[in-house]
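Because discrete structure vocabularies remain unfamiliar, it helps to consider an illustrative case, giving the amino acid sequence and backbone structure tokens:
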Amino acid sequence: MLLRRRFLLLTAALPAASGVAAAQTYPVRPVCLITPAPAGGVADVFARLYGEWLAQRLNQPFIIENRAGAGGNRATEAVARATPDGHPCFG
């Protein structure tokens, strides 16, 4: 029981001790938002408004890419085949 308490105490103190590490800025290049709906629809308008809001806060352009069709499977496939760096359109 004492080992468990000591372990929990160490894990609770670990984040405070690692304050030296600095996070990298993200995103470092334009970001693509993929919507599974056609252009001009409600989902497209919402994605464009959300992309504009994110662009102002993160100082990077957000590109909206509409991948309509197959019940959202085309958009899902595009995201699944994207590089894992968080930039699906530019991989």
Remarks:
- The chain has a mean pLDDT of 80.
- The longest strand covers residues 31-35.
- Residues 35-91 form one domain.
- The radius of gyration is 20 Å.
